[in-house]
Amino acid sequence: MKRRFEMYQYRQVVVRMRLGDSDREIAKAGLMGRRKAAALRHVALAQGWLNRGQPLPAEATLAAVLTAAAPAVTTPSQSLVEPYREQVTTWWQGGVQGTAIHQALVRQYGFTGSYLSVARFLQGLQATVPKATVILEFAPGDAVQVDFGRGPELVDTRTGELRASWVFVMTLCWSRHQYAEIVDDQTVWTWLACHRRAFEWFNGVPRRVIIDNPKCAITRACFHDPEVQRAYGELAEGYGFRIAPCPPREPQKKGRVEAGVKYVKGNFLALRDFRHRADANQQLQAWVLETAGNRCHGTTRQRPLTQFTEVEQRLLQPLPAVPPAPACWAKVKVHRDGHVQFDYGLYSVPFRWIGQELWLKATPTMVQVFHDHILVATHPRLFGAGDRSTVTDHLPPNALAYCLHDPQWCLSQAEQVGPACHALVQQLFADRVLDNLRAVQGILRLGKTYGPVRLEAACRRAVEFANPRYRTVKTILAKGLDQLPLAESAFDTLAASYTGQGRFYRDVGALLSH
Description:
- The chain has 21 helices and 16 strands.
- It is an alpha+beta fold.
């Protein structure tokens, strides 16, 4: 881009010319290029400005003569975009990017200039159309502004590793007194807990909280209809403040806390060392009261802590008698195993909700699951990764039966049926290869169909013939063999069907006994 010269600079060059400096010497001194100096010398000679007997021309005279007689000396060449000024200005004010404007000019008007021509023209528009701003005014106790800033790397006391941190800052808009805290993350839990501690620090609640659009507070940023995080909305109701999110991409509307974050980072964090996060927060709180609170604020020219204690503090809303418990809401989907996941913990819900989305509300001590505002499950809060909380009543009938009817329960039920049933169950549980819990449960369920008397007789026959299996007991009951005497040969047919022998097969012991 061409350099723009002021009239006093032209006057200085004329003085050097009157002293005898050449165009090359003027250019070497950095006052003006040789071509421009030559053009100025031509005009100066015609006007008699180089005559030492004549007084130097005034700046107004220079401007009038140079503009009229030699416009090339004072004005740059016309932009190739100038013929399309009105159309380009309309596009630019409508938010169209420079590359798109250049392509449109080429496509619609046969524009032959480069993209740089368009870029230089748009820079000129930005310089000639400055954006106006308005200073926002706030009454005492009316509002606070909240923001996060990047903090120092601190040692994790549990692992000994360095971890990134964040600085939470809440600044009262009127007095500029602030609350600051160094935290590990920007989760919903941290956001809610910092608000609570900040209100307790101020011993009061403002009427509005002005924020940006962090995910921990706003789930969908929008100029007209932002969606507030459900947990943050409940906190606002509990403390009695209104949430005022800034329009998207306009963080300057909370400039007081932006400046507060920069002040914390530049004045407090810059030259301090911290052993861990607790040590950093202890130093930070002392710094807020001693240094930040007692400085002469650059805008108000007052001490923030003095303004707060003498005026603003008593105009804040009082803290609630019972502070609302921080709670985090999340939409969760029920897995096929009848559990939902939150913070790596698993919580059971009634099996009929498998595959559906439910609302989960988590507090520091409890987790509740809702379906259309109806409570369907309650659990103690889990904190270990992979921990599982299961209520047996939530399981489907088959799984419930398997879980509840454990070996001890089965042995107790079999003993109530009879000694033969108890002996058969013991033999099944004594198997060193198979886990026969389902087989035992199936045998005991046969008692509901055939009654305990017949089940005991069938178990006695199965034990007598050394075949303690579920299918054996079921077949005996289905064919009524439990009602026959043990010496009856009809059972031999059943035995043959399981041994693979012929119809007239007899045990060796039976043959020798005759």
